[in-house]
Amino acid sequence: MTNVPKLEKLLVWGNKLSGNIPSSISNASMLKRIELQKNFFGPIPDTFGNLRHLERFQVNNNNLTTGSAIQEWSFLSSLANCRNLSLIAVAGNPLKGLLPTYIGNLSTSLQYFYAYNCELKGNIPTEIGNLSNMLLLSLDNNKLSGSIPSSIGLRNLQALDLSSNKLGGPISESICGLERLATMYLSSNKLHGPVLACLGDMISLRYLSLGSNRLSSAMPSTLWNLKDILVLDLSLNYLNNSLALDVGNLRSLANLNLSRNLLTGNISSTIGVF
Question: Is residue 47 classed exposed, middle or buried when 0-12, 13-18 and 19+ CB atoms within 10 A define those classes?
Fold first, then answer.
């Protein structure tokens, strides 16, 4: 792409294109959007850092497997030069390897990061906390382990999906500082410890899923402060008290799943007001 100096958008998604992603794309210096998703492309070149105007980088649902695991993620280091970048989508590629620490060098303009179903393993790097304007972080359906870093308490975050990994340890209290968070999926991990009472202070929550973990505590009555929550899933844990009467405060609730815990007592009559 040496003769298209004014090209701003390259959209070829949803085809059956294959082979390597050509590094010559980086010669189109005015590119703002690259959308190559849903094809059969090979590795991601490390040259996209030359695209200083790049805003959206979408290569999800391809076949990005060629090369070593370390090389597979080196493209993130290159993309750190793209200071206007707001969206990165690499989900649905068997990239494997570790999420590198230099993810923290990406632009603070970054708002959306999709890396679900990439066969990622290892810890979530603490440097992810440098991405202060992140709105959505999706790392679900990987093999991530270790604990959820306290640095993930990004003040602008609206959606966090870490479900279906191998994360352990207690839920970090820093999560309770996410005042704008509307969606939090932490289900199908190995989290243990209590369900934090401070979750009841996260009044923006609409979808909260902590199911299929090893959480063991009384179910905090503060959860019934979430009057606008739509879905609450605490199933498949070791929660061990009866339903608080204030459960009737959840007037917007569409789905409540408390199955397979250690709850006792009677079902609250206030459920009938839903």
Answer: middle
Q: If residue 103 lies in a helix (H) or strand (E), which one and from where to where?
A: none
DSSP 167: -
Cβ atoms of 158 and 182 closer than 8 Å:
yes
pTM: predicted TM-score of the whole model, two decimal places: 0.93
Residue-level pLDDT, tens digit, the chain, 274 residues: 556 778 999 999 999 999 888 888 989 999 999 999 999 998 888 888 889 999 999 999 998 764 554 455 888 889 999 999 999 999 999 888 899 999 999 999 999 999 999 999 999 999 999 999 999 999 999 999 999 999 988 889 999 999 999 999 999 999 999 999 999 999 999 999 999 999 999 999 999 999 999 999 998 989 989 999 999 999 999 999 876 667 778 889 999 999 999 988 877 777 766 6
Domains of the chain, earliest start first: 9-273 (3.80.10.10)
Q: 67's torsion region: left (phi>0), alpha (psi -120 to 50) or beta?
A: left
